[in-house]
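User: I need a structural model of Phage integrase family protein from Flavihumibacter stibioxidans for a docking pre-check later this week. Nothing fancy, just the predicted structure tokens so I can convert them on my end. Input:
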Amino acid sequence: MLYPGRVVSAQSIRQSVVTNLLKAGHDVSVVQGFAGHRYPGSTVRYRPGEVATLAAAVNKYHPFG
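Assistant: Understood. Predicted structure tokens for Phage integrase family protein:
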């Protein structure tokens, strides 16, 4: 097994490529065309850091945080 504990499939590789392109700063419309997505929202969901930003805001402003 090359990657113990990780699921490696064509879909996970594709997701990784799209995420890395966005992380490298490529324009969403360029990555959208490369990935073959019909709608920009399909591409934007791969943008890294949005979940981390939201989690940080919840931890900062939540009354029990």
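Before docking, keep this in mind: The chain has four helices and no strands.
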